[in-house]
């Protein structure tokens, strides 16, 4: 399917009285961009308007609290009081100005939050803790249930008064409404539990009260998990039985997701889960309803979205993380500029991993550092064109070169290897990591389009600088594996993870990997799954893969277990010996031997000596990425984007 043949995704569609210009949706995604008091901030507005301007037909706000005690994050967008209406009114006007529509997602977390966020004990249909959050909630009384129903209805009233085009009731992912709907969390024996009628009473009464409040024509979307993917949870076949009842109650569209907190890795799936993994659930729901169905879940490619719609598996496609990576995806698709689309790679580093990081809180995006900074990181032409030399063609080097060139600088990029990509080429080798190559390809194409002059297979010397006479130099030379100072290491001929992933060595049958961080675990995964080796992994810390985000870590450890990798934690290497090592663990020494190959994954050291040599020879010099300090690609690329705007 060629990009020029994509037509279905751009067809208009009706949800109740609401007409959307196309079938591409930005679903609700947590950002924590709201003001501290829960009102709509300029930052949040800029972020959402950028997606509307990029061509998406419907924008759905992130989870929006209908109760002051229904917070799920430190900075919670809210609609529980009339004081929130002006902010939503401004947001609606701004999105309408971009010819898009906007809905508010009405939400209460129930037991899936923490009391230090809510300021009160958690509440739920039953006093059963979420296995992730672990706090025992208070069982709601019938009177409290009625009060919550009114709060949902009042939230919908405020949304309509603010000019929002629809509301989406969040009945997915194990939050309060989902808790009532599932025997997994609802053990009540009164009218709000027990049989199917009891399990559905709370959501149906909410729908009825919202409908009474907003009128017959106002669109109500209902988001639910087609399959909760947890023992005792609702299956897709059970979901199909409740869909007609919810439609009859007044739902105008269904948004079909998956999972609860206990199966969180399927809510925001990493690279290990194939694109479009949730389409089959939407397809089943579509068989049970006459209203439009929205599908969601790792649908990053407009060609896949087109195929889903043409095959009748869904009526609209939500492209969440894809809209983070490239808010202009619809416009670029419509124009046929496929090579210009910046692809989501489902790394989850900037979005879901940061959302649950109580220190960083606000989301970002590895491939698009402007997320949440749309205004301050707008590309502005440089006041004076400069000759810029970028040393190193990894992701940070390419990003700084791209940005600097787009601002009007004359940019030269030198890479000592024959191919661009730097460590990203190695990062794309382990299982379930191949999508990283999309970013290498994107940046390679974009720097060429921007006019960057690229020299491959050439190492920069002082003579290079004499010849080019640059006004600014950016050192983006990456890092190199750390070789620890441990007795016997030189005699035993160990290799590094870079050697293995780069194909520079042929590993033996039995492998010992030293270092259980991300690089060590992914190398072990590659050796076990791709090379068919027997792997033993040694880590000094109590747990392996501690530097890997939650959802990615879950599937990585699952694969290592399937490959029968032997993992030894809390163990330090004291000495390398013939075909093995001497370990110290719990104060005792133990010899591990019989290995054909020993692989080091003990960290990265900056490569930046050249910066010291040339310091003072140019007016501007910047050291970025791992050359400055080894860190995640998310941070390295973000730094590169900032420096490209600073030069």
Present the secondary structure layout.
Elements (H helix, E strand, L loop, with lengths): L12 E3 L2 E3 L3 E3 L15 H12 L4 E8 L19 H12 L4 E7 L7 H4 L4 E2 L13 E2 L2 H20 L4 E6 L4 H6 L14 H19 L5 E6 L10 H14 L3 E5 L21 H8 L6 E4 L5 H9 L5 E3 L1 H6 L3 H6 L17 H4 L31 E5 L3 H12 L3 E6 L7 H5 L8 H14 L3 E4 L5 H7 L3 E4 L3 E3 L13 E2 H5 L8 E5 L3 H13 L3 E5 L11 H13 L3 E3 L2 E7 L2 E6 L2 E6 L3 E4 L3 E3 L2 H6 L5 E4 L9 H14 L1
Parallel strand pairs: 3-4, 3-12, 4-5, 5-8, 6-7, 8-9, 9-10, 10-11, 11-12, 13-14, 13-16, 14-15, 16-27, 18-25, 19-20, 19-25, 20-21
Antiparallel strand pairs: 1-2, 17-26, 22-23, 23-24
Helix pairs in contact: 1-2, 4-6, 6-7, 13-15, 13-21, 18-19
Task: Identify the notable features of this structure and list them briefly.
32% helix, eight-stranded parallel barrel, 647 residues, TIM Barrel, 21 helices, single chain, five-stranded parallel sheet, FAD/NAD(P)-binding domain, alpha/beta
């Amino acid at each position: 399917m060629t990009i020029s043949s994509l037509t279905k995704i751009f067809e208009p569609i009706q949800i109740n009285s609401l007409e959307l210009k196309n079938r591409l949706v930005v679903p609700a995604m947590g950002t924590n961009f709201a003001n501290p008091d829960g009102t709509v901030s300029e930052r949040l507005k800029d972020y959402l308007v950028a997606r509307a301007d990029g061509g998406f037909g419907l924008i759905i706000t992130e989870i929006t609290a209908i109760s002051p005690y229904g917070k799920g994050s430190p900075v919670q967008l809210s609609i529980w009081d009339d004081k929130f209406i002006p902010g939503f009114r401004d947001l609606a006007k701004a999105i309408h100005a971009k010819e898009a529509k906007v809905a508010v997602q009405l939400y209460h977390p129930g037991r899936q939050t923490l009391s230090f966020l809510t300021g009160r004990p958690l509440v739920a249909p039953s006093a059963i803790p979420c296995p992730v959050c672990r706090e025992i909630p208070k069982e709601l009384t019938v009177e409290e249930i009625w009060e919550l129903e009114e709060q949902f209805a009042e939230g919908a009233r405020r949304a309509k008064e603010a000019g929002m085009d629809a509301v989406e009731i969040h009945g997915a992912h194990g939050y309060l409404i989902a808790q009532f709907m599932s025997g997994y969390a609802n053990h009540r024996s009164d009218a709000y539990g027990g049989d199917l009628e009891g399990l559905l009473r709370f959501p149906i009464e909410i729908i009825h009260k919202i409908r009474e409040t907003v009128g017959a024509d106002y669109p109500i979307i209902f988001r639910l998990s087609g399959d909760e993917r947890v023992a005792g949870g609702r299956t897709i076949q059970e979901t199909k039985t409740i869909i007609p009842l919810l439609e009859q109650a007044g739902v105008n569209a269904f948004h079909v997701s998956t999972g609860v907190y206990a199966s969180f890795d399927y809510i925001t799936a990493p690279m290990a889960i194939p694109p479009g993994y949730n389409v089959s659930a939407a397809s089943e729901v579509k068989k049970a309803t006459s209203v439009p169905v929205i599908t969601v879940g790792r649908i990053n490619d407009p060609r896949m979205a087109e195929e889903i719609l043409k095959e009748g598996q869904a009526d609209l496609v939500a492209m969440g993380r894809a809209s983070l990576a490239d808010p202009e995806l619809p416009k670029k698709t419509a124009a046929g500029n496929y090579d210009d689309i910046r692809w989501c790679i489902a790394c989850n580093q900037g979005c879901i991993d940061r959302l649950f990081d109580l220190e960083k809180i606000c989301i970002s995006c590895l491939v698009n550092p402007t997320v949440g900074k749309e205004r301050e990181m707008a590309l502005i032409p440089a006041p004076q064109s400069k000759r810029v030399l970028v040393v190193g063609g990894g992701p940070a080097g390419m990003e700084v070169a791209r940005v600097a060139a787009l601002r009007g600088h004359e940019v030269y990029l030198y890479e000592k290897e024959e191919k661009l990509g730097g460590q990203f080429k190695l990062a794309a080798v382990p299982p379930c990591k191949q999508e990283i190559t999309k970013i290498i390809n994107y940046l390679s194409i974009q720097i060429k389009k921007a006019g960057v002059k690229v020299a491959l297979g050439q190492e920069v010397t002082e003579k290079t600088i004499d010849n080019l006479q640059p006004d600014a130099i950016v050192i983006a030379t990456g890092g190199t594996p750390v070789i620890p100072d441990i007795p016997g290491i030189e005699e035993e001929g160990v290799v590094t993870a870079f050697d293995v992933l780069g194909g520079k060595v042929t590993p033996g049958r039995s492998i010992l990997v030293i270092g259980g961080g991300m690089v060590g675990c992914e190398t072990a995964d590659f050796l076990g799954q791709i090379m068919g080796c027997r792997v033993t992994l040694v880590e000094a810390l109590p747990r392996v893969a501690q530097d890997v985000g939650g959802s990615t870590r879950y599937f990585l450890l699952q694969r290592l277990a399937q490959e029968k990798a032997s993992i030894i934690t809390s163990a330090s290497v004291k000495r390398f010996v013939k075909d093995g090592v001497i370990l110290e663990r719990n104060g005792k020494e133990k010899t591990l031997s019989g290995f054909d190959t020993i692989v080091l994954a003990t960290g990265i050291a900056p490569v930046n000596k050249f910066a010291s040599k040339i310091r003072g020879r140019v007016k501007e010099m910047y050291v970025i990425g791992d050359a400055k300090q080894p860190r995640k690609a998310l941070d390295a690329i973000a730094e590169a984007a900032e420096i490209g705007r600073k030069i």
